[in-house]
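Researcher: Good morning. I'm working through a list of sequences from a screen, and I'd like to move beyond sequence-only analysis. For each chain I'm collecting a predicted structure so we can compare shapes side by side. This is the next one on the list. No need for commentary yet; just the structure.
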Amino acid sequence: MTDILFAFSKILWFPARPGHFALIVGFIGLFLLWRGRRGGRWLVLASLGFFLMLVATPANQWLMLPLEDRFPRPAQAPEHVDGIIVLGGAVDQNITEARGIPSLNGAAERMTEGVILARRYPDARLVFSGGQGSFVHGQITEADVARMLWTSMGIPPERVVYEDAARNTHENAVFTHRLVNPKPGEVWLLVTSAAHMPRSVAVFRGAGWRGIVPWPVNYRTGHSWTVWYDAPFPERLGQFEWAFREWLGLVAYYLMGRTESVLPAR
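Model: Good morning. C-alpha cells for this chain:
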C-alpha cells in the first residue's frame, strides 16, 4: 500500500504542479480556439493570469510565509542535545553519480548546518535520513552523497547513522525512529528547510517522536518589500510550487492519518 501511495503521489504531482497545470490549461484553451470554440479564450486568459500574478504580486511569499514562520528557531540553542537529525532533499544523487563529487541543490544549508551542529554538540548522535525520492534515479542514494560530503568535511563516518531507505517525509520519521529508538526526555534537533518544517514536525510527532526541537534553515521569505520582489520569475514560480506542495502534503498526510492536524501546534 505504501508503494502504491508513493507512486500515486509522484504521478499526480506532474499535472498538479501549478506551473504545469497552468500550461496544460493554456494549451487546452489554444486547442479549443483552433477548433473554433470561443470559450477557449477563458482558459488561455486563466493560464496567462496565473503567470501574470506571479510577476505582479508576491504570491509566492504569501503562500510560503505561514510555513516558514510556523516554527522559528529557538532564541537560544539548547545547552544539551542528544541527537541531530538532518533530512534529505539537499543533494542531487544523479549529478553526484555522473560527476563523482557531491552535488548540492538550493537546500544545501541542511547539509552545512548539520556539520555546524555536529561540531557544536560533539557528544550528540548524528542522523541523516534520505534514500531515493524519485522515479528516475541511479545507483546511489542521498545518504551515499551525504556520507561522501560529510566525511570529506571531517565528520567521522562511525559517528553518523545514515538512513538510506526513506523516500518521503513520513518514511524519514518512521525509519529514523526505528533506527535510533529515542528515549523519553531526550532532546533531538530536527534540521530541514523552514518551509518544510511544519510537515516534518507533524509527521515526526505522528511517528512517535516526542523530544523534537525544530531547527529550520534555508529560508526563502522575509517581511519586507525588498525581499518580496527581489527574486526573478523562475525563482518565484519555484517558491510558489514548493509552498503549494507543502500545503498539499500537510492536507494529504492529515487525511491519511499520519498527522494529528493539518498544521501542527507550536
